[in-house]
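Batch manifest, entry 17 of 40.
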Amino acid sequence: MDNNIQRPLSFGKILDQTFRIIRGYFKPIFLIVFYIMIPVLALQAIILAVTGHKMLIGDDSIQNIWSATATELDMYADYNPIRDFGYFLSMAPIFFATPLIVGAISHVVKRARAGEPAEAVEMIKLTFPRYWPLLGSTLLFGIIAFSIVFASIFAGAFLVAFLAIESAYVIAILLALLMIVGGFIGYGLLFTRWILYLPATLFEKVAPGLGRSWRLTKRQTWKFFGIYVILTILSSIIIGALNFLPALFLGTSIIGNLWTNFVSLISSIILAVAWAIMYFDASLRQDAADIQDLVDTYNT
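Output type: structure tokens
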């Protein structure tokens, strides 16, 4: 990487640097995900098998549904709480693995910005000392985000239902549309202020890192929000393209679920690299601002 990579970055430069680092350091980044996901996928397979999921071809695969009789289709439609519980329980190992993956990839980005080589195992080892603060920060962020979204959706749904009961259907529909658009932008901007909590927790040894992220994203919220939206759409397209046929032919089988989860994490590499770049860019800008404030104070 050239020395210009250390300068404050614009919207386009952050996107460009994201893909340059992924291309130049793809091997260690991929191996980080691969090494961490081996035990995670094994544990997921055990949970899914115990809770009744089939190994290769799920009951809801296209070939089974196509050849099923009406009686069999009714059977497929039956609610299976144990199998559904197993599916949600199998997501837990990914939750515990995500902070380690994001932290190790952040170390790769730090090495890339310095023009230094990076080895997957070494990056994982560097992340381990901060694993519990990273996990705790992730749990706290999830609780806060869920509480905000749940409370606002509940209040909005109650208001729309009240208007519908009072026969104010047009107002209820307009209000629902306004809340959807406003919620997307409002949630996006709010959570963007906290989006750098993992790199901040990792490199600055603060926990949970939400306050530090809030300060780092000051005056850059719209830029980071736009980057996040673009990369999320791109990741979703990649996930959809790679999961379309396996989802049709494998269904919710064990292999189908493992493939979906692995592809989702591989695609999330884009976001993990971008988060680290945004963190270093924001830190660089804030350091420059802090120095300028000191100079201004000294001159005064």
